[in-house]
Amino acid sequence: MITIKDKTFVPFISAEAIQTRIEELAEQINQEYADKCPLIVVVLNGAFLFAADLAKHLTIQCEITFIRVASYTATESTGQVKQILGLNDSIEGRDLIVVEDIVDTGLTLFEVRDQLLAKGPSSIAIATLLFKPTALTKQLDLHYVGFEIENRFVLGYGLDYDGLGRNTPGIMVLA
Ligand code: 5GP
Ligand code: MG
Ligand code: MG
User: Fold this and answer.
1) How many domains does the chain have?
2) Which residues are the active-site residues?
3) pTM metric for this prediction
């Protein structure tokens, strides 16, 4: 159990279970991209540990790059808009694997995928460690999902609460 600021979190997915599942996902990617050289696009900050552990089990040739997604309010009518920061490489004709920590409403990845598609990649697959199916509000194909979880707030293994708690080897849930 850990307490961060005003909130208490209890163990939810163990470090061992995460590592076992990541090895399975990596094996799937190794098979499906055996004759390709994908560009792995890691969405910071939350996916940093997932991406690092996944990468260690990839035996294919691949490139790895990192982006951030910034939210800003463009106009009142368009609401929050996402901007991709840090994508300097050309992605035209590339096979992309976008690596995320968690898909909740799906709004972030929905927009990110749209913006990446506009740059002409040859394919885009999404790998997310966690997925909350009941929170999803957008039609979004997820190709590699670590764990489907219920709609509760989780923390650790890259995921934060108010900037804190990313540095735990397992995932915790709000008590
Ligand atoms: P979306 O709702 O757009 O799918 O998710 C946006 C972002 O919200 C995720 O990338 C993640 O940073 C954050 N998020 C969603 N659910 C959780 C959660 O349960 N715990 C934490 N720490 N962050 C979450
Ligand atoms: Mg994220
Ligand atoms: Mg966060």
Assistant:
1) 1
2) 104
3) 0.95
